[in-house]
Write a structure and sequence with these properties.
The chain is an alpha+beta fold. The protein has two domains: 140 residues, Glutaredoxin (3-Layer(aba) Sandwich); 56 residues, Antioxidant, Horf6, Chain A, domain 2, CATH 3.30.1020. It has six helices and ten strands; from the N terminus they run βββαβαβαββαβαββα. The longest helix is centred in the first third of the chain and has 19 residues. The protein is globular and about 60 Å long.
């Protein structure tokens, strides 16, 4: 007997972000068109009125201004309805305190997706984990509407927000300076100069070549000051 479940291919890095229109706690949105020119983190959570999701929303809301300074907007989603979203966010503001955060108001849009249409478009429903709840998916969408990174977490695991911010700044830095970032990179650490066939060729192509260190033809690094990076990627 054929499986009647329709399988939607999951978007991949480098794909155009799948388009959709949706109702949210901040009104209707047309994604990603409404966010042209900005980075966006589109993320899903399993359910309203659950503790891990509550801790995540409080953290995201507390960091919204920090992400905004990096030209990045936040958009949440779960398969709950709009009135559930509104009641949950009100409860967070009125009653919940976590890690010193309280009276937290979530101002970014939270998508109603009771039909699971958007969640399925983005592969947020993972049947092996749950067929009725979205996993903790994170999609980084760039100002041109292209998916640049995807991170998935299971239902039981809360996200690391330092890593989400680090990944955003790293991708912006790579775009701005035509470099790559090594393991555990933070602004101010040395960056990787993409291989150019030989160390000499790489140095000829790069500004600041006198500062480059080449350990072999495929592994060259150079410093970029933290202040230079932040001045480039952060809004004044």
């Amino acid at each position: 007997m054929e499986n009647e479940t329709q399988i939607t291919p999951m978007p991949r890095i480098g794909d155009k972000a799948p388009e959709f229109k949706a109702v949210t706690t901040q009104g209707g949105i047309n994604f990603p068109a409404d966010y042209s020119g900005s980075w966006v983190i589109l993320f899903s959570h399993p359910a309203d009125f659950t503790p891990v999701c509550t801790s995540e929303f409080m953290t995201f809301a507390s960091l919204e201004d920090k992400f905004a300074k990096a030209n990045c907007k936040l958009v949440g989603l779960s398969v709950d309805g709009l009135y559930s979203h509104i009641a949950w966010l009100r409860t967070i503001k009125d009653k919940i305190e976590y890690k010193g955060m309280k009276d937290v108001e979530v101002k970014f849009p939270l998508i109603e997706d009771i039909t699971m249409e958007v969640a399925k478009k983005y592969g947020m429903i993972q049947p092996g984990e749950s067929s009725t709840k979205a996993v903790r998916a994170v999609f980084f969408v760039d100002p041109k509407g292209i998916i640049r990174a995807i991170i998935y977490y299971p239902l039981s695991l809360g996200r690391n927000f330092d890593e989400l911010y680090r990944a955003l700044i790293a991708m912006q830095t790579a775009d701005a300076f035509s470099i790559a970032t090594p393991a555990d990179w933070q602004p101010g650490d040395d960056v990787i100069v993409p291989p150019a066939g030989s160390c000499g060729v790489a140095k000829d192509r790069m500004e600041g070549k006198e500062e480059m260190k080449c350990y072999d033809w495929f592994f060259c690094t150079k410093p970029i000051a933290k202040e230079t990076i932040l001045k480039t990627v952060l809004k004044k």
